[in-house]
Queue: 3 jobs
Job 1
Amino acid sequence: MKIKSLRYSIILAAIVLTAIGIACIYLPPSGVIIYAFDQNPAGIDESNECVSFHNPSNESVDIGNWTFESTHGTTVIEWIAKGTTRYPGAYCAGTPFYRWLDNSEEAIIIRHLKR
């Protein structure tokens, strides 16, 4: 009987620790993350390079006046239009009309600039 009780205790502890671990996954304060980007699309780069954002949280997030920035070579800063909202679970893509990402060694930063 003790072995069965111990087995259930171990299983319960594993479930609780897993739930705590999932709850503690780090998300930025806003919850919005860069989900994907394409820095070297097939064909020409202009108007085809893109970055995708995702709001995995359970709340809407106003990302108006935020920026997404490239960091390699010539730095580019793109503003997200005021009043833009990402609803819970929503995805969106940003695609400037010019080449803004280098084809290697690139990083993209999303910033919440308070104005």
Job 2
Amino acid sequence: MAATNTKVKVEYLSPRVFDSSMGQIIATPKEGEREPTLQSEAFKFYGGIALMNIKNVFELGICVFNQRELETDQLEQHALTQEMLFAIDGDFIMPVAPIIQKNGEAWPDLDRVVAIRVPMGQGVVFNHGFWHWAPFPLKASASVIVGFEKDTADKDLVIRDLDSKIVMQL
């Protein structure tokens, strides 16, 4: 008998949906929400929006994701490093799940998976170990800044095939 798909309603990025156990939200503070670190007539700088604990060289890249069905039967994890994703030119959706242990191995907890919609001009920093999948743009394609410790993609990437699909619903 095939496993039942996990259906998840897509929710906009917020501290309620993407809490501090998952990571940090990157967004320009709303007026009055916090004081700028530095400011002048020309700018307001808000430091410390998100912090990453990187031991070596920090790598930034741009990945262009193609639009596809809002479903996946795989999730990925970086067990040792954090990852930053920032929406440059369009919103994207992605599933995010915490870790559970199965037979001594880390697996995504599909009972607690969420689907977040990250608006253009905002981003997230995942705490190490949180499961996620490649962003799903809402238009033909969208560019996303990807940041993590250099060589994370080669040295700290675990992909799990799931028994069922995660189906994200708008």
Job 3
Amino acid sequence: MLNGILRIQPTLPPPPAAPAAGEDDLFSSGLFLRLGFSFMVGLAVGYALKVAFRVALVVGGLLLVLLFSLQYSGIIEVNWAGMESSYDGFVDWLAAYSGALKDFIANNLSSAASFTAGLLLGLRF
């Protein structure tokens, strides 16, 4: 009897839930599952390099201050020319191997792009 008089409105589905707090953060599990293995390795390597660079800079700086103070007090004599030739040899070696790294990245471009993005992000955070 009320069939023609009452209209039943279809119910709409509820709106999608807002993302939980921290779901789109850098270190959330959801983000890790969507990214590739190369990106994750790059992120880990970048973060490790960042920490290692900081430690190396602090230790190297302390060693140089110690060397300068010992030379100033006359306890040791530092051969700066010998240190310069060793440094130049290291820079030449590093230049040769960085060219090999560039060739490796060029040959594996798809993985390397993801790795490089992760590396840069790891160095930033």
